[in-house]
Amino acid sequence: MPKAGIIYNDVKPVACRIAEELENKLAAYGWEVHLATGIGGILGYSKPDRPMCHTPVTQLAPPGFDQDMAFAIVLGGDGTVLSASRQVAPLGIPLLTVNTGHMGFLTEAYLNQLPQAIDSLMAGKYELEERAMLSVQVWRSDALVWEALCLNEMVLHREPLTSMCHFEIEIGKHAPVDIAADGVIISTPTGSTAYSLSAGGPVIAPGVPVLQLVPICPHSLASRALVFADSEPVTIYSANPNPLVMVVDGNAGCSVLPDDRVQMVRSPYSACFIRLRPNEFFHVLREKLGWGLPHVAKPTSVELP
Fold first, then answer.
1. What CATH number is attached to the domain comprising 181?
2. Could you tell me if residue 99 is inside a domain?
3. Residue 111 and residue 121 share a domain
4. Would residue 78 show up in a list of annotated catalytic residues for this protein?
């Protein structure tokens, strides 16, 4: 019996209802179906006054999800997609993402398109697209104290944002660089349309094998976004007397002490997405962010009253 999964946002009633309907529909097709919420991919926040705690990235899969699963359907917004990708990326399970949220930049279909999407899925009429992920680790001396998979970005900043931070950053074998800013972002191409875009970073097409470093409100005209090969590891040292806060994909974080180091490298695991049509990135930019819309012609003359 083929196996499928459903990961949904249990905070949204519509996602809960659709998950139950989908379970019944897939079961009628003869599929073994496993349901899970996206909560398992939200890693939570640690605090300086309590021991570090993290779940290894290979142990986030929900019960019943394994490498024999043909696909999983995600019902939610971008946050649920990010969470689901961390849960199943080590298993290589393809995700069909259905938007029940607002922006839905990472989603493939809307709810009103779900019946046609399921028909295409059952008929095998789809393509697979892999998106690079980051492995983010916090080391304290020689001990790994926290780790996470990252699809969008890692952000390291002071909390609250009341004064300048100083960072020493090593990229591959290049000379270390010093950056004074409110914080720094290390982003994947997928994340280039998220926080790093708001911080002034460039948009990068998903298939380009690069990462980018974006300072947040840098205290220098020379500190600007830097794009570099994703084959190069990144290490960040805090040059601050107080702890910093690290946030991964907007919903998982860790306190970083002055002597800690944050290490990032392209993960051996990728997020795998089901595409029901050829993925036209410029179309997505135009539809979701208004990029490249034609200018409205101005009138050639104005009649005065």
1. 2.60.200.30
2. yes
3. yes
4. yes
The answer as to whether 297 is a domain residue is no
| CB of 194 closer than 8 Å to CB of 153 | yes
299 within a domain of the structure (yes/no): no
- Pairs from 253-260 (Cβ < 8 Å, separation ≥ 24): 253/43, 253/44, 253/45, 253/46, 254/45, 254/46, 254/52, 254/54, 254/138, 254/145, 254/146, 255/46, 255/47, 255/48, 256/138, 256/156, 257/48, 257/140, 259/140, 259/141, 260/138, 260/139, 260/140, 260/145
Catalytic residue among 10, 49, 68, 78: 78
**Going residue by residue through the chain (305 aa), what tens digit of pLDDT does each one get?**
899 999 999 999 999 999 999 999 999 999 999 999 988 776 655 555 554 556 788 888 999 999 999 999 999 999 999 999 999 999 999 999 999 877 778 999 999 999 999 999 999 999 999 999 999 999 988 888 888 999 999 999 987 766 789 999 999 999 999 999 999 999 999 999 999 999 999 999 999 999 999 999 998 888 899 999 999 999 999 888 888 999 999 876 788 999 999 999 999 999 999 999 887 888 888 888 888 777 665 556 555 55
Q: State which residues form the domain around 11.
A: 3-131+269-289
99 and 126 within one domain: yes
- Is the domain of 146 the same as that of 250? yes
How many domains are there within the chain? 2
